[in-house]
Structure prediction request, 223 residues.
Amino acid sequence: MLTESDLTAIGLTVKLAALVTFILLLIGLPLAWWLARTQSRWQAPVSALVAMPLVLPPTVLGFYLLVGLGPNSPLGQALEAIGIGPLPFTFAGLVVASVLYSLPFVVQPLQAAMQTLDERALEVAATLGAGPLDRFMTVVLPLCWRGLLTAAVLGFAHTLGEFGVVLMIGGNIEGETRVIAVQIYDHVEALNYGQAHRLSAVMLVFSFIVLVLMYSLNRGAKR
Prediction:
């Protein structure tokens, strides 16, 4: 049986994942489009920055976020001056860290889908008088819906499973920053393996179902 603390952690994690996925799509769509289309010399450095969370230890990213967003840093002081800070050990800090950590899981599927677009569809839309934004909304997004679905699912699922980066920037505050992964860690530390198993099993089943649905939709769309 899941405890009240477990249910609180689940609710907080789902809330975090949903908000982060929404923000990631807002950021990732224009960024992926630029990376897929640009010939700029900045394409490689920007791609490397986006992909860094894939190879960087989560604790390293979490440490630099903790230092960079802390009240003693210039950025932290600037954010606090406009009423945003301090971000460490808050839900808002978890959102910032999760957006940065999950960014490549959203941008890369979108970029891959956009790189396979048929140029003729865009050219036809342009000849019919569609502007850049209109072409993006009415041509690019409908043709890239599978990439968009994959990006949304991966961003959501990856945020659900975060541990190192959220522990570094958010700590372990019940109802505020204690997400599912941290809750499981607490159960293991307390040698409460039964409760850790139950909560882990919930995450395992949920992740499996989400991925099966995603692959099934993608497979059905290809037929």
Observations:
- The radius of gyration is 20 Å.
- Residues 7 and 44 are 43 Å apart (CA to CA).
- The mean pLDDT is 89.
- Residues 4-37 form the longest helix (34 residues).
